[in-house]
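Before anything else, study the sequence and fold tokens given here and see whether the fold suits the sequence. Record follows:
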Amino acid sequence: MKANELTLAEAFRKEAVSGFEKYLPRIVDCLELLSEEEIWWRPNEASNSAGNLVLRSSPGWAGSPTHASATKNLPSVARFPAGCLSGD
């Protein structure tokens, strides 16, 4: 990667993390309104669940060592169960 591409990538990463941190309290408030079943519900096989969208949008999503710290402030019902990456 060229220096200007690295600068752009870092700027994008910072903006993405900032946006996630800005909206995290609202996301948590919304997830707390749902049951675990509702968090992982999908309207059809081609769709993602709300839990899956949050999981894949969070910094250092599951599978990385930072997953625990990325999800530690989520309500317990929204913590992602073991094996959730194998499908909703």
